[in-house]
Amino acid sequence: MTQDALVIFTPSGKRGRVALGTPVLTAARQLGVDLDSVCGGRGICSKCQVAPQFGDFAKHGLSVAPDALSPVNAVEERYDRIRGLAAGRRLGCQACIMGDVVIDVPAESQLHRQVIRKSATERVMEMDPATRAFYVEVAQPDMHAPEGDFQRLAAALEFQFQIKGLAVDLEVMRHLQPTLRKGDWAVTAAVYQGGGAPRLVGLWPGLREAPLYGLAIDLGSTTIAGHLVELTDGRVLASSGLMNPQIRFGEDLMSRVSYVMMNPGGAAEMTRAVQQGLAQLATALADEAGVPLADVVEAVLVCNPVMHHLMLGIDPVELGQAPFALASSDSLDLRASDLGIAGLAPGARAYVLPLIAGHVGADAAAVALSEAPEMRPDLTLIVDVGTNAEIILGNSNRVLACSSPTGPAFEGAQISAGQRAAPGAIERVEIDPATKEPRFKVIGCDLWSTEPGFAAATAATGITGICGSGIIEAVAEMRMAGIVDASGLIGSAEQVGSSRSEPQGRTHAYLLHDATATGGPRIAVTQGDIRAIQLAKSALYAGARLLMDEMGVDAVDRVVLAGAFGAHISPKHAMVLGMIPDCPLEHVTSAGNAAGTGARMALCSVSARRAIEAQVRRIAKIETAIEPRFQEHFVAANALPHATAPFPHLASVVTLPDVAFNTGGGDGGRPRRRRG
Ligand code: FES
């Protein structure tokens, strides 16, 4: 008589022989099949559900008899009666293998499943979270056995789930005894297994059925944005953001570094401010999602190097001067409470992605994780535009990264009528090449300024200024309409043929909107604005070009614009300005908040963490500050779109007027060396 049976698991295709009478859950473990279990096979969590298949399977050369599994037992009957078990489903911990069988593991029972989410960015989330719940029954204390409650809990987790060497923080230990007694020695333990010793991060009496939650946080210089994510399926339950409270110490990063240098205790003050911001965001997200903050067991953080150091309470002064040394570039595995994020599960962990280089942060690493240029044969240029542009160029052969000091012009700063992206800011601009008349859209209103109803629709917000994407479109449209020449000079009213070009000292400005008659602002694009944009875009292009030199190429296959700002830039306008190298316009895409997506991927998956840690070690870092060719590229990139590089793809869709308003030689400007 046969003592064992063949079992084939689908969809993995894993197969093997197991002894008759082996529970399906045990067989799955023996064969390395992904089958979930929270209660350790007690028949109470139902995470181990499987769908046995019966009949003939020619493909497998197998015929499965109706009695290939043991009959439904009392535990399953009870579960079905109380909670309901779908037709055809069995509990894997109860059903035993009695003959050759094919067993399907449905997606919701797989530990490392793929979940496609249609949230901000649609993508497949690999679920392999570091923190999981385990239900255990713990031996009660005994006068004759001196071990502590924690040791008996650890022994139960080792015996039932093979979790060896459990560690615990004092904060969790403080809750241990009342919880064990409240649960009558049955508890659900949240255990973090993200690297190093497994850690007990939270404990609940009895079987906890609600999911565990995590936070994915993108800590930017201006805003702190976060998602609250369900750790079982990667679902985003809440998304929110707030201004970085450090803004009061300086708008850009460099001014914050200067604040630290000039004010004793300044770094600690800024650390407190940002940690309070993180705690505030965590509370807001939990409120919005309607989940207890104490059910949040993990946070993943991404940020630029200066924010990274300030968040951790490390003086960022070394990042303000060559050679821009980081305190540590590796990923960090910390207690969330070390970052001042209070109120989470008592032992909640915080994982910070690795930094790529002194000016290329964990946010860029998150973009690299999310976009994965190393997985594609074609050459991808990824540009995350901020005060400091972070640039990645790569394909399956090689990936390079650098940062470039673009300054804050792309964010509307240093622009005469510039402002942050907020209701009332001009975000889209079009200029009629024949009449030179503009029309525009402001944030908060879908109508063009020339459409009926625009005035009424914008009455509440007003038209207050130009945001980053607005200034890019305005300058590009001025170039396309022949109001600005290739050197960046604005022509006079006579040269341009429009009274909207107004003299301003020895230069000209183009009037976009005049509301002075009704007490509103006068919004114009000045020569100084164009120079500021030229400096910023030259720095961006020069950084990208430097990476292309290093790669030995003159063109890229595709460009990905990352970051919240990247989502609003029009590819055509960006290319007219020469912000990015020429490539087919349809190959220029926006990745939305790729850093936030990368943070979510790392939150949902330990393998994603290990993958980006390894990838960051492989990425070659190019330091623009010491690279002499950067200066050459910068100067050549000053023209709109470029002094020497051909832009054939751009030329096929846009003809730029051949105008020249320069009578005395244009000032090319100097590259900014400052960072921030
Ligand atoms: S493992 Fe919990 S019900 Fe089967």
UniProtKB/TrEMBL annotation:
PANTHER family: IRON-SULFUR CLUSTER PROTEIN, IRON-SULFUR CLUSTER-BINDING PROTEIN-RELATED. Residues 213-369 form the RACo-like middle region domain. This is Drug:proton antiporter. Gene3D superfamilies: 3.10.20.30, 3.10.20.880, Domain of unknown function (DUF4445). Residues 120-209 form the RACo linker region domain. Residues 379-650 form the RACo C-terminal domain. One of its GO terms (molecular function) is iron-sulfur cluster binding.
